[in-house]
Structures are given as structure tokens and as C-alpha cells.
Design a protein that fits this description.
alpha/beta, globular, 6-stranded antiparallel β-sheet
């Protein structure tokens, strides 16, 4: 088996679902229905089971059905190593609880890697249009799923960054505290050097895969480049060098940081640059070029995860196919069969290329799912 298989999804008081139980036995699952009926909520619940967070909101309270105090999500996935059961309890007034094979996990990082997915939705245009934080989130989510250690380093980095920023402000009031700053610099550079190198390796891998996919989509008319823009420069992919340069940047910027009470250099300032034929897509690209970049990137994620883990992740397509022309639709359809795919549609006629493929169809209406 070369792909994850989601076998079961159970929702209790999740968004607009009071009680939903679905079983899957196909590589292609379609959720069809009018807008605002709950199709996206199903994909969101699957994504939550993969990463411990929603792609739509950072507030767990918003995932709980109106008027209820708690919600529950359970998924069962078949992997090469066997069945994994992931259960997540969401509560209005306390932290979420996560169980893997009915055993509680103490840290959300323990969830990473048990159920991987790639989500493609119209919101992904933010990856190009909006600020660097969107692109950093993209890198972090990708790496955390295939490399749980990355998630821990990221958590550590953010904790140290917050402590360092807090100390910078305290030093403004009590200058004698400056002697303790080097301790936080060391910890920040240690975690940051790991993050930077993994991001560099990710971008190098995605560049090779995405460039080939993009070449096919555009029939050779466009050359795509993914350029990693680290806040800390380095010449060789050597952690010692990156850490050394990181510490030097912090030293150079110390006066600036003390004046403003912020850390102005580090991987929390990293960015990605997307180019087509040498042109910055964010500044000069057309709507169609941006959409094609995102599609190439998402399909390259699938291949990257497969190469890293030996299994294709789930492919979640949230109202994405309607945005694509027939050529781009066909590129996506080639992955159906490689990866178990879940698609939301408002109209089954949107994708005639399915041609009666072996698939499951559920009609979604007002928080109810009916097999079709």
C-alpha cells in the first residue's frame, strides 16, 4: 500500500453537525451540495485530525456546534503499519484533548505524522497574495507532518522568541538584565538553525518537483522557481555555520532590538519568493499564473510527502476544481488513484473527467450526509 486510507470519520457537535458517521471504501470521495451546508466542515475535521488545528480558525471554540459545550472528532486511518485511530475532544472552556489508539497524548506534536494530508482550497491564493507569515505557515505545516522533530523545534523557537522579546522590554526599564540576553540568544540560534536548514531542504525538494509539474501544466511556456529567503544568510547547509551566523546577526542587531523591544532577525522573518520566467509572481503575476503556481505547489507537496514517508497523504480539495480549467483539472485527476482524494463540489457536472470512476458520493444538506 502506497497511500494512506481514511476508513472512518465520526463527528459529534462539530460545526453544524450534531451526529455524523461516515465510512469510506473508495479512493475518491465526493461531498456535493449547495453552499453553506457543511461540505467544508468535513474536510476541516479531517485536517484537524492531521494537524491538531483547523485551517479556518485558531479558536477551537468556533468548531463547537452553537449552544454546545464540547465537540468530538474521530478518524480511523489505514497505514502500512496498521490502523491508527485519532480522537480529538474540543471544549469551550479548556484545552483540546487528543488520543491516538485511545491513548492520551500530552503534547500536540505527538499527533504529527499519524495522518498526513494536503489541502487545496481557494484560500490558498493567500499563499502568494498575502504577507510572509502565510508562506512560513505553509513551510511549517508541511515539515511538521513529515518530521515531528521539526514541530518541537518550532515550538521551542517560539517560546524562546517570546521570552527574548519580553526580556528586551524589561531591559529598557532595568538595564542590568542585559547580561542575561546571551542565554536566550544561544537558545534562539540553536532552534532557529535547525528550522532554517529544514526549510532550505524543503524548498530545494519542492523546487525540483514543482518545476516539472508546472512545466507540464503550462506545456513548457513557463519556468517556475521557488526561492527561500532566510532572514539569516549562510553559504553551506551546515547547522554550525547557520547558528554562528544567527548569533552574529543577533549581536549586530542588539542595539536596534533593545530600542524597539523586538527580535528583528531570525526565522520568524523568513519568506518565500515565487517566480515565473524570472518574474516575481506576487508583484507582476496574473490571476491565472498565481493559481497555477498554487496548484503546482500543492501537487508537489503530495510527491514530497510520498518521498519522505513512503505513503501518499490524503488529498483534500475544497471547492478547488471549479477554479481550474480542463488542463489543470486533468493534472489533479492524475493523482486520484495515487492518493485517496476528498472533494467538495456544488455541482457534479463541474468535473466531467471523472467518467464514472469508482467513487463514493455524499449529498450534504443542512449538516446531514446522504449516500448517493
Amino acid at each position: 500500500m502506497l497511500a494512506l486510507k481514511l476508513k472512518e470519520l465520526v463527528l459529534r457537535n462539530y460545526r453544524n453537525y450534531e451526529n455524523l458517521e461516515l465510512s469510506f471504501d473508495s479512493d475518491l470521495v465526493i461531498f456535493a451540495g449547495k453552499n453553506a451546508q457543511g461540505k467544508t466542515n468535513i474536510l476541516e475535521a479531517i485536517f484537524l485530525s492531521c494537524t491538531g488545528r483547523s485551517h479556518k480558525t485558531s479558536k477551537d471554540r468556533e468548531l463547537i456546534k452553537w449552544g454546545k459545550g464540547e465537540a468530538f472528532v474521530r478518524t480511523r486511518v489505514l497505514r502500512q503499519q496498521g490502523i491508527r485511530e485519532i480522537s480529538i475532544g474540543l471544549f469551550a472552556n479548556e484545552k483540546k484533548k487528543v488520543f491516538i489508539n485511545r491513548n492520551p497524548v500530552s503534547r500536540i506534536g505527538e499527533l504529527m505524522g499519524h495522518l498526513n494530508s494536503v489541502l487545496f482550497s481557494p484560500d490558498d491564493m493567500k499563499l502568494i497574495r498575502e504577507g510572509p507569515s502565510e508562506r512560513r505557515r505553509f513551510m511549517d505545516m508541511e515539515l511538521s507532518q513529515v518530521q515531528p522533530a521539526y514541530f518541537y523545534y518550532l515550538q521551542q523557537y517560539n517560546r524562546v522568541l517570546n521570552q527574548r522579546n519580553k526580556l528586551l522590554k524589561e531591559i529598557q526599564k532595568k538595564p542590568s538584565l542585559i547580561s542575561t540576553l546571551s542565554v536566550w540568544d544561544e537558545q534562539l540560534a540553536d532552534a532557529g538553525s535547525y528550522i532554517i536548514l529544514q526549510r532550505k531542504l524543503l524548498c530545494d525538494s519542492l523546487q525540483i518537483i514543482a518545476q516539472e509539474i508546472h512545466h507540464r501544466i503550462t506545456q513548457g511556456a513557463e519556468k517556475m522557481l521557488i526561492i527561500y529567503k532566510p532572514s539569516v544568510s549562510f553559504n553551506n547547509a551546515d547547522r554550525k555555520e547557520v547558528k554562528k551566523n544567527f548569533l552574529r546577526e543577533l549581536e549586530i542587531r542588539r542595539t536596534y532590538d533593545l530600542e524597539r523591544g523586538i527580535t528583528s532577525k531570525g526565522c520568524h522573518r523568513d519568506d518565500l519568493l515565487f517566480q515565473i520566467n524570472g518574474m516575481d509572481v506576487r508583484t507582476y503575476g496574473s490571476q491565472g499564473q498565481m493559481r497555477t503556481i498554487v496548484l503546482s505547489l500543492k501537487l508537489s507537496e503530495l510527491e514530497f510527502m510520498f518521498r519522505e514517508t513512503g505513503e501518499y497523504p490524503l488529498l483534500l480539495l475544497d471547492d478547488a476544481m471549479s477554479e481550474l480549467d480542463p488542463i489543470r483539472q486533468q493534472m489533479v485527476l492524475e493523482y486520484i488513484g495515487k492518493a485517496q482524494t476528498f472533494i467538495t463540489l456544488t455541482d457534479m457536472g463541474q468535473i466531467p473527467a471523472f467518467e464514472k470512476k469508482n467513487m463514493q458520493v455524499f449529498i450534504i444538506e443542512a449538516g446531514k450526509a446522504s449516500p448517493c
